[in-house]
Amino acid sequence: MSSTPSSLCNSCQAASNLKYCTCGQVVYCSKACQQVDWVRHKQSCPMVVVRVVEGKGKGLVAIRNISAGTVIFTEDPLIIVSKKDEQGVGFEVPGYEEFKKMDQVKKQELMELYDPKEKNTNFDCHEDSEYAKFCRIVTANDISINNKAHPGDVDLGLDVVYKQFSRINHSCCPNSFAECEAGSATHSVRTGKMIKKGQEVTISYLGSKDGTREDRREDLLNTWFFHCTCEVCSLTGEEREENDRVRMMVLTYLMDAGSKDNIIRMMNDKKNITATLRNYLRVLADSYSIEEDRGKRAVMLSICHVLYRQAKRLCGGWVWPSDNDSIMVRMTLQKYLGENFLEELDMLAISAASVMTRYFKAKVKRNLDLLT
Asked: What are the distances in angstroms from CA 73 to CA 63, 144, 168, 191, 241?
């Protein structure tokens, strides 16, 4: 909610029967007035608000439907800390001198962020309680930004804390992702899938890292001081085992094709390219049995396209094997991608990457360009 909304209807200036817009920034005397004023107010009405989320403290919640690929908000950081400033001495956090120079409003905004006081006692040794709190809040809310224009650029090694972005909670099946402008600390949050009104906006704190449920939860607890209870981590029994198996298999295959040299090696291996293609198509099909990871799937689609086209070149064509496993793989992929998906893998990869970060777009482009 904004500081002090007007006490008059934002449309007709009436002073009675006033109700807040969902965003809390303006008031209206009737639904009709709100609808009339929407074209104007929509320009400043945020898509999300900070609300208490059960079991998580505060988080960002959508106040209207947000389509995939939409930039929810863009913001500059409250504070930027260079990792090069770290001294590696005891339990200290760089950036406190910069913090003391900040204006009072920004100081307050930073110090109102999540404070894992009871869970992180590393800084209790400091006599200055404000500094100890600063350390706890920064370590729990900062992120290492990737503002490289291209995957091969040098990492500047910056940690930053944001007012709004730092409120977004983690999920191992996130509906949004964040990206820094190239060479800048300005951060944008974009939806990776449709978010319905009332749903929480989530991102993955783990970045490109992945793993089994046990590995993810351990990493999140050690770094951000919470036990993940997202829909994926809440799976039990065979569902959890299958989720772990597929996640690790997708990760392994993507790592095997992670470098340009590795993909070129696969492309030039005439003896094994058909078997390699079959394996990647099987992993792609298996990925549809768990929650969607659109970025990884876009890259997997581009790899399958490259291998398929190259197999046709080297072997004079490619025909689906007739064994039961291959038939099931084909049926699964036709169900999700369409009857003629093999001839459209490149367009499917580009479409999947279109709402993702420039990192995934660059990965897909690099793979597809190998055929030119």
From this structure: 13, 19, 12, 10, 36
